[in-house]
UniProtKB/TrEMBL annotation, chain A:
EC top class named in words: ligase
Subunit structure as annotated in this protein's UniProt entry: Heterotrimer of A, B and C subunits.
UniProt xrefs under NCBIfam families: gatB, PRK05477.1-2, PRK05477.1-4, PRK05477.1-5
Domain Asn/Gln amidotransferase: 327-474
High-level lineage: Bacteria, Pseudomonadati, Pseudomonadota, Betaproteobacteria, Neisseriales
Gene that produces this protein: gatB
Keyword set, alphabetical order: ATP-binding, Ligase, Nucleotide-binding, Protein biosynthesis, Transferase
GO molecular function term, any single one: transferase activity
Descriptive protein name: Aspartyl/glutamyl-tRNA(Asn/Gln) amidotransferase subunit B
Chain's role: Allows the formation of correctly charged Asn-tRNA(Asn) or Gln-tRNA(Gln) through the transamidation of misacylated Asp-tRNA(Asn) or Glu-tRNA(Gln) in organisms which lack either or both of asparaginyl-tRNA or glutaminyl-tRNA synthetases. The reaction takes place in the presence of glutamine and ATP through an activated phospho-Asp-tRNA(Asn) or phospho-Glu-tRNA(Gln).
Pfam families, alphabetized: GatB_N, GatB_Yqey
UniProtKB/TrEMBL annotation, chain B:
The protein's name in its UniProt record: Aspartyl/glutamyl-tRNA(Asn/Gln) amidotransferase subunit C
Pfam families: GatC
Subunit and partners: Heterotrimer of A, B and C subunits.
Top EC category: ligase
Name of the coding gene: gatC
GO molecular function: asparaginyl-tRNA synthase (glutamine-hydrolyzing) activity; ATP binding; glutaminyl-tRNA synthase (glutamine-hydrolyzing) activity; transferase activity
Length: 475, 95
């Protein structure tokens, strides 16, 4: 039987505020345990939550970027459950009236574009951390993370393959960083993904029963976990079994998912509006102000790059994968007036080198200005592509400009017709056999001759000119 | 609406309140009385009225994103039953 996969993602985006969602306690990562846990996070009697304005504004930013509806009245609710890293006995979240509803995110799968619809995004607080290592048979509780602001972004079940799910997660990850609302650090838990996965016979309308994979903190694990889960569900159904609704965990060591709790043990959270917090009201002017402060969005920038610099849609999509890359490219394209060359170098050599060294564009040793210098010398034929690579390597290792490197290493391409003619004549005289073969119709012999010329010029002769002059002389 | 013995036991379990078998009948009666009141309220026609999330019709005041709290760990942990390496210790929980 042919199966169709249905995936929806819930992503916890940690907002990069200075303080917690409901108190003026610092959110800096990596502090000593419980040194960033105030009476509010510890749930001491009599304390009251006071909402952080930056959380609301960052949520609006994301909503505007996704083309969502901003609920100008939204309400916090209590989600009740008992766990030691949640001292209040409830998490403050949003239920019936979240701040953001609807909207969509474009994703790129291979070279194909697709729109994933959003259900909602709501504000909530994070819980603390439980440490189960040995503390004389006890569990250790660190409440530094408690009260850290999160936006839970929920997609519609619109994805049909693990690749689409990863593309969506990557697109959302790059968007929240682009908007400057999240640092995107997945190792530190700033971007955590839950995946709802089900399968159904191809062509069937109703969804199959879903299982939810919790807390995936890398794109690789997301892909592995979904792939494993799909195969498990298909195997189970094809063996005549049933998939029961459940929450599962992914074990990166075994590459398998395993059941955490079944539907019967599912939490009954007994949501109700939090009486400690009044409804949040957002004025039109506030939304308009935030809209006016928004950076140009990736989709708009992508279209502009195609239009203004003549780069392909695919190249433009890569260039707008992060705001830093887009800005870097634009600076080079602008200054050099060579959009296509700039795109080739940024998506090619620069991306490959950064990737190999595990670096970000922000740590790129070649500034936009210095790359511009290189591209100008390619555009005006001072450098052949081979020499350009050599200059690029030198740029990577030093602080010199492209011109200084060309001067220092004598890398100027020789385009002087007289000089090239002289070398061509020498090559013809020294290789009568190749000349004979070429004249007998063996095209390849020309390359051998061109190679001799390039060697004689130490790689500096303009290769196109060498070919032309050779053909002239042998005609 | 009338709560069964099982309903009451489940509510007690969710709220982590220890209610003995003998108490369940009495607690169930009390809860059913409250539900009686709620039923009366629900009988009132509220068509076209927007539900209120809070009895006071005012909006939330927001706070600027500025650190105002300092580290008070020592004071907070002085009243904790057990601490180690800066952590609060609780009976082992594994989910």
């Amino acid at each position: 039987m042919k199966w169709e996969v249905v995936i929806g993602l819930e992503v916890h985006v940690q907002l990069n505020t200075a303080t917690k969602i409901f108190s003026g306690t610092s959110t800096a990562f990596g502090a000593e345990p419980n040194t960033q846990a105030s009476a509010v996070e510890l749930a001491f009697p009599g304390v009251l939550p006071v909402l952080n304005k930056a959380v609301v504004e960052k949520a609006i930013r994301l909503g505007l970027a996704l083309g969502s509806k901003i609920n100008q009245k939204n309400v916090f609710a209590r989600k009740n459950y008992f766990y030691p890293d949640l001292p209040k006995g409830y998490q403050i979240s949003q239920m019936e009236l979240p701040i953001v509803e609807g909207g969509a995110l474009p994703i790129l799968v291979g070279e194909e574009e697709k729109l994933v619809k959003l259900t909602r995004a709501h504000m909530e607080e994070d819980a603390g951390k439980s440490l189960h290592e040995d503390f004389s048979g006890m569990t250790g509780i660190d409440l530094n993370r408690a009260g850290t602001p999160l936006l839970e972004v929920v997609s519609e079940p619109d994805m049909r393959s693990p690749e689409e799910a990863v593309a969506y997660a990557r697109a959302l990850h790059s968007l929240v960083m682009w908007l400057g609302i999240c640092d995107g650090n997945m190792q530190e838990g700033s971007f955590r993904v839950d995946a709802n996965v089900s399968v159904r016979p191809f062509g069937q309308q109703e969804f199959g029963t879903r299982r939810e994979i919790k807390n995936l903190n890398s794109f690789r694990f997301l892909e592995q976990a979904i792939k494993y889960e799909i195969q498990w569900q298909i195997d189970t159904l094809e063996d005549g079994g049933r998939v029961e609704q459940a929450t599962v965990l992914f074990d990166p060591d075994s590459g398998e998912t395993r059941m955490m709790r079944s539907k019967e043990d599912a939490h009954d959270y007994r949501y109700f509006p939090d009486p400690d917090l009044l409804p949040v009201r957002i004025a039109d002017e506030q939304i308009e102000r935030i809209r006016s402060e928004m950076p140009e969005l990736p989709a708009a920038m992508k279209a502009r790059f195609v239009e203004a610099f003549g780069v392909s849609s695919y190249d433009a999509a890569l260039l707008t994968g992060s705001r830093a890359t887009a800005e870097y490219f634009e600076a080079v394209a602008q200054a050099s007036g060579q959009g296509k060359l700039a795109a080739n170098w940024v998506n090619g050599e620069i991306a490959a080198r950064l990737n190999r060294e595990g670096k970000d564009i922000g740590d790129c040793p070649i500034s936009a200005e210095r790359l511009t210098g290189l591209i100008q010398r390619i555009a005006d034929n001072t450098l052949s592509s081979k020499l350009a690579k050599q200059v690029f390597d030198a740029l990577w290792e030093s602080d010199l400009s492209a011109d200084a490197i060309i001067e220092r290493d004598g890398l100027k391409q020789v385009s002087d017709v007289g000089a090239i003619e002289k070398m061509v004549e020498e090559a013809i005289a020294a290789n009568p056999k190749a000349v004979e073969e070429y004249r007998a119709g063996k095209e390849k012999a020309l390359n051998a001759l061109a190679g001799q010329v390039m060697k004689a010029s130490k790689g500096k002769a303009n290769p196109a000119q060498v070919q032309d002059i050779l053909k002239q002389k042998l005609a | 609406m009338s709560l069964t013995h099982q309903d009451v036991a489940r509510i007690a379990k969710l709220a982590r309140i220890n209610v003995s078998d003998e108490e369940i009948a009495a607690v169930g009666n009390q809860l059913n009385n409250i539900f009686g009141l709620i039923e009366k309220m629900q009988a009132v026609n509220t068509d076209g009225i927007e539900p209120m999330a809070h009895p006071q019709d005012v909006s939330l005041r927001l706070r600027e994103d500025i650190v105002t709290q300092t580290n008070q760990r020592e004071a907070f942990q002085a009243v904790a039953p057990q601490v180690e390496k800066g952590l609060f210790l609780v009976p082992k929980v594994i989910e």
